[in-house]
Structures
1.
Amino acid sequence: MPQTNLLIKLDGLTMTLAKGERRQHLVRTAELELPPRTAVGIVGESGSGKTLTVSSILGLVPFLPGITAGSLVLGYDQTPDNVWRDGPWLNRRVYDRRKYFTWQRRLTSRMKRYRGKKISIIFQKAKVSLNPFLKIKDQVFESLKIAGESPNIDSALYWLNNCGFNAGEASRIADQYPHQLSGGQAQRAVMAITLSSQSQTVIADEPTTGLDAKLQVETLIFIKQMLDKFERSAIIISHNLYSLAKFTDICYVMYRGLTLEKGPTAKILEHKGTNHPYTQKLQGLVESGDVVGQTQVRTDIAGCPFYANCHIYRKFDAGAQKRCRESEPPKISLDSDHYVRCWAFEK
Ligand SMILES: Nc1ncnc2c1ncn2[C@@H]1O[C@H](COP(=O)(O)OP(=O)(O)OP(=O)(O)O)[C@@H](O)[C@H]1O
Ligand SMILES: [Mg+2]
């Protein structure tokens, strides 16, 4: 798809921690492309850099680990907006705080027209995203104001109705504070607030964390139905490939800060031994319905971060193993819309 048709094009994102002379890349050359009316998934275990990646899209980045390389182009208007390119505050030895804060201030003012207006985010725990001091209706009102609509109870009830509350329930929930809601109700209230802002893109960062297994599936089905109904695009983050399989069109597989595979979700699930070795491991977990746990995060590896657990690496001779350990795996196209980062795929 040509670049101009994309709503989000994030390229070569590198986010780096600096301790004295030491550099640790928590995200390495990550990328993400979001076409309109598409749901894109990011899957990976805890600590793989999923939240840092989507935070960079909204400019919600800390000083450390700051963005040290990459670029972001947003395509919500006719002319694509080159929002940032490379973190300018890192020279070879030190982080330049002054340059960083100037850059961050400019970014914040530039992102005002996107945050909540074009792109909304639902964070890991719904209740944490809600303001504990405001009734749900007041939080929908805030969101309606962002969309340029005057705050009114009919619109608030319309969005609550659309998000799975029947008429009686919607008026009751509208008058309640977040702590009075159950986990599932809070999640649907967050969805009503998000959708009422009319933003074209919804980023859902593990929206089902903290819900029980049955409610997790129901919530994801619900989110997908809402996005389809209101023709929104989405980035959905999950630990679990099984969850994303049903709700996304395209999937990115991340491991310890690196995107190891990207393709149509159907191809990521094909299970013919043709995917990245890490994706193959996730596919095994799909079958058992399990989720990926957290492994110790080692981001100081120059080569493939997965080599120590890779079944193909073990079959390689010493020379090929050295290459996996020491050189960043190249991006190999398997198809026009599908790639893996793996030395084993090099012809
Ligand atoms: N401000 C920070 N300072 C130091 N390390 C950080 C900071 N923010 C994130 N990290 C580290 O960067 C790595 C990636 O973090 P990130 O939150 O993006 O992971 P994630 O894939 O979203 O994980 P989870 O599934 O647990 O939410 C983790 O190892 C995390 O500990
Ligand atoms: Mg996260």
2.
Amino acid sequence: MLRVALFLGVLACAPAALACEGGDCPANCPMSSQTAQNDDVDAAAGTKIVLAIDGMHCGKCADHIAAALEAVDGVNAASVDYTTGRAKIAFDAKKTNVDALIAVVKQTDDFSAKVDDSKS
Ligand SMILES: [Cu+2]
């Protein structure tokens, strides 16, 4: 019975559908890839910012946020790291701004974000 529950938990978390429902991601959820590597963000044009994000449960959450950020007009590159809870973004300050990016993260499931001024 426990095995079935674990299996279903993995299934619920695994699809690339990016559905990370609430806090249901099991600990063994695949902690996969970041969308863009930090290096890509460093190399990208535009203003760079680091956000601290609360509420990610696994790598899929990070992928979900990164995809949402990269879909924003004006974002040149975004990388979200589940393990550090940090999102690094390169964006065109003429097209978008920090508050808008934070709002996008908040709209993506229920993550909270703020500017990380501890710097990386
Ligand atoms: Cu997750």
